[in-house]
Amino acid sequence: MIETRANTKKLFIKTYGCQMNVYDSDRMMDALAPHGYETTLDMGQADLVLLNTCHIREKASEKVFSELGRLKELQNERRALGGDMLIGVAGCVAQAEGEEIARRAPVVDMVFGPQAYHKLPDMLVQAEAQRHLHPSLKRAVIDTDFPEEDKFEHLPSAKKEVTIKRGLTAFLTVQEGCDKFCSFCVVPYTRGAEVSRPVAQVISEARGLVEAGVKEITLLGQNVNAYHGDDKGRAVGLGELAYLLAEIPGLERLRYTTSHPRDMDDALIAAHRDLDILMPYLHLPVQSGSDTILKAMNRRHTAAEYLDVIARIKAARPDMALSGDFIVGFPGETDQDFEDTLRIIRDVGYASAYSFKYSTRPGTPGASLTDQVDEAVKTERLYRLQELVNAQTTAFHQSCVGKTLPVLVERPGRQAGQVGGRSPYLQAVHLEGSTELIGAIHQVEIIGTSTNSLVGRLKVKAAA
Fold this sequence. Notes:
Elements: E1 9-15, H1 19-32, E2 37-39, E3 48-53, H2 60-80, E4 86-91, H3 92-104, E5 110-112, H4 120-130, E6 141-143, H5 151-154, E7 169-173, E8 175-176, H6 187-190, E9 195-196, H7 199-211, E10 216-220, E11 228-231, E12 234-237, H8 238-245, E13 253-257, H9 266-274, E14 281-283, H10 291-296, H11 303-316, E15 321-328, H12 335-348, E16 352-357, H13 375-400, E17 404-412, E18 418-422, E19 428-432, E20 441-449, E21 453-458
Parallel strand pairs: 1-2, 1-3, 3-4, 4-5, 5-6, 7-10, 10-13, 14-15, 15-16, 19-21
Antiparallel strand pairs: 8-9, 11-12, 17-18, 17-20, 18-19, 20-21
Helix pairs in contact: 2-3, 8-9, 12-13
């Protein structure tokens, strides 16, 4: 939360979708705090409401328009009481459908894409000027360009200019955009081409987060392991960046997401071997186990090549746990193609996974494919796939029982006398203990499991 000051305005941000959007929302708060905004959890009390949207999920734009209908009612209530509410739509839906949003929802004051949130204070000035115009003249402020300037260079430093209460974990975007052009994905069209932040900029932000109390950082990117940041004229990959970040005093854990199999190079795999700070948990989507479907998806790797990458990773880090993404019912997927996907899941053995039925995204190559799979077939396949993955997740949780794991204790538990944290494998862990344990990594013996978490017991050091 932003430190309260006199004459502050209330800001409410609703964040949809991915971790990248969570990071973007935090940086929007950073951009607005010097201009008198503090966050509120009550949308109805907000002077400014921002919807930070994601285009990955099905019917994403319709969900946004539904939310805007509710916001119009809240805005009318505020105006009836003598106040007002500015409304903005940000993120990937805004990038893809900026003019359409402004046309269909006149209640919106601002529409801006992921590359423009550093301009938010200036857009607010323009929106404030528009609100005094006659409704027939009022126009939404729209910015969906891909600017040449680096937005990160124009954002305030959270450490120096904005007082934000940081938790023990934080996201840090190091790369944006994607050049892969998978046929089902809108990211290249809404986030643009791959861009990596300079090494010095990443290190500086990471140091600021650690100085603010962060113990664990997750590096973010639409294709994060394609990172190639500049370091005084030399390109640095994600593996080398991990070594540099590991030198920051006080940073105890490092993660990254989301990766592409084609960019798991030797240097990054070696970093997993060498760096204890780099957690043994990797999200590496494959999407399908069928080479025919992988080719139709334009994934540019085969199932065998994916399995080879997994083998190399596990050879370097035997305790590595994997998670993945799967799309069922991609156009043209046969029963055999689906069985190939189940086979690759059995071969890898996932700790967790995300799975979805294919749905078309306007503007992507997949949207024009005619060999669509029947919805009932997709539903049945998704059920079978999730049943297999859930069994693997349960087995992975059970395999942790009896082990002692380092747990970063982050918060009070849901019950009195309990605290909660995360294992190296990103599992939630609950244990008996006082809140004095919060803020540090403790050795915890895993004594049981529940549906989505582990149950632990603090490992007491033996007396000397």
